[in-house]
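Batch job 17 of 40 flagged for manual review because the log was empty.
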Amino acid sequence: MPNIDTGYLEKELREIVAEIVEVEPGEVTLDSDFVEALGMDSMQALEIMAAIEKKYKVQIPEDYLGKIMTLSGLMEITEKIISGK
């Protein structure tokens, strides 16, 4: 698989999270806690996972759900899964 453009991935994931959590994309920083800073609940976390699975045609194991707490963590997980590692 080709190298992943992390800047582009960051932008796309930021937009997905912002839309689901209903905040402006600028409020989703690399380290902002989705629950504490953005008010994400467990249903929104599942929606984020589903949106990523649909967009990138991948399967995210449910045990990763607890790791989706920041944009940087979400990027790390998504990159691993997309690249097949």
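Reviewer: the log was empty due to a logging misconfiguration, but the result itself is present. The mean pLDDT is 91. Unflagging and moving on to job 18.
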